[in-house]
Design goal:
Number of helices: 2
Distance between the termini: 33 Å
Length: about 100
């Protein structure tokens, strides 16, 4: 099953510049024009610039690869370690926020 998530990174950097921080998760990432992908984690992250937030994120995690909660938690830990202010929200199948990770900054 595919699980959706959304969030924001409050930094004015293009998504590909976060690749090093995302590598702190231990997942292998491929960078495309507007997305980061990890086949190992079943993860796709797309970003849209936002004047107020930095980057708005939307993504999917395939639970056939890894537990979506664990994947999002590892992303949150990586962003925290990189010093990036963030919010990440994992949605349930009916679109309700199931888990929220947010930086202390």
């Amino acid at each position: 099953m595919i699980h959706s998530f959304y969030g924001s990174l409050r930094a004015q950097r293009p998504l590909h510049e976060f690749a090093t921080a995302f590598e702190l998760t231990g997942f292998d990432f491929q960078i495309t024009r507007s997305a980061l992908r990890s086949g190992e984690a079943g993860l796709t992250i797309e970003a849209t610039p936002s004047p107020s937030e930095g980057l708005e994120l939307a993504g999917e995690i395939d639970d056939a690869c890894l537990d979506p909660d664990d994947v999002l938690r590892r992303l949150a830990l990586a962003m925290e370690a990189d010093g990036v202010a963030f919010t990440l929200r994992l949605l349930s199948a009916d679109g309700v926020v199931r888990v929220t990770y947010e930086s202390d900054r």
